Amino acid sequence: MKVLVHQKFGIIWLAALMALFFSIPSVHAQDLDVPYASTPPDVVEKMLNVADVGSGDYVIDLGCGDGRIVIAATKRGAFGHGVDLDPERVKEARDNAQKANVSERVMFLQEDIFKTDISRASVITMYLLSTVNEDLRPRLLNELEPGTRIVSHNFGMDIWEPDEHLILGDSYMDKDNLTIDQQLEVLDHEIFLWIVPAKIEGRWNWQTHGKKFTMQVEQNFQKFHARLTAGKDTLTISNKVLKGKKLSFTASNPENGMHYAFSGKVQGNKIIGNVQIRESNNKMIKRWEALRNVDT
Ligand SMILES: C[S@@+](CC[C@H](N)C(=O)[O-])C[C@H]1O[C@@H](n2cnc3c(N)ncnc32)[C@H](O)[C@@H]1O
């Protein structure tokens, strides 16, 4: 009888252990797209500076490791969360948030960077690999709001050139208190910043100062080529800038000396802003409203 009871408990124990084992999502090193390595604290601060992180921002760290980037962002007034596939890292990040007393403003989730919802971020931070950044690129361009800042430690995104690229030499920090090893660690860190551009490809039409304007745009990330006509005249475009939703350029007609400075915000198939018009000694500012031709 005693033996039977023991056997029964043994079986229950074994079953409970197996249930526990299979219910804990286990992750092996080979499941990870990037091995763990942490961004040094000074580089974290530089990344947050470059992305201009502050209150009102929502930061998502893709592959958050011990949570240091999101935790540092909360100290600037931002909210945010980190995702990591490795449960050990997620636990470590949660413990670190608790220690830093910021648990009420951050979360750490065990999720895959290729599946997690990124749409709410105003800032994305990453310390992954170039190939992983490239695989993530379509999601970053299509799922993030134009104007979202993406900051990456050490790795670029191939054909999508960064809006800013810093190579941290040894002059960016006070090295007096560092050991030789620590000095080597702070050398050669690179920071890349991209600002998600609005989609402006296509044909845009508007009226300015009684003239019908048509602009055909070909876009290459934050860079674009545009052909602009006003009535029958082709204008020369310069000073082109596309930064998130903000679009500006100047246009002039060497034939008649007309000069225009357009600046506005892209809102889907509309651009709303103003245009400064210079016509010999005459200067004026008018509202600029362009519509994209959605039929073509
Ligand atoms: C180089 S570490 C960066 C850690 C932290 N962001 C930092 O800068 O200190 C990359 C992290 O990505 C995680 N990781 C790798 N592949 C992942 C995936 N597919 N989804 C989520 N996290 C992943 C790893 O577990 C690791 O913690």
CATH homologous superfamily heading of the largest domain? Vaccinia Virus protein VP39
Write out the strand line-up for the largest beta sheet, numbering strands in chain order: 8-9-10-11-12-13-14-15
Which percent range describes the beta-strand content? 35-45%
Mean pLDDT level: 89
Note the run of SSEs as H and E. HHEHEHEEHEEHEEEEEEEEE
Query: Which term fits the overall shape?
Result: elongated
Hetero groups in this structure are: S-adenosylmethionine
Question: TL;DR?
Answer:
This protein is of the alpha+beta class and 296 residues long. It has helices at 2-23, 41-50, 68-74, 87-99, 130-143, 180-186, and strands at residues 58-62, 79-83, 106-109, 123-126, 149-153, 164-168, 189-195, 202-208, 211-220, 223-230, 233-243, 246-253, 258-267, 270-279, 282-292. It folds into two domains: 29-195, Rossmann fold; 202-292.
What does the model show?
The protein is of the alpha+beta class and 296 residues long. It has two domains: 29-195, Rossmann fold (3-Layer(aba) Sandwich), CATH 3.40.50.150; 202-292. Helix content is 25%, strand content 37%. The strands form two sheets. Strands 8-9-10-11-12-13-14-15 form an eight-stranded antiparallel β-barrel. α2 (41-50) packs across α3. The longest helix is centred in the N-terminal third of the chain and has 22 residues, at 2-23. The N and C termini lie far apart (84 Å).
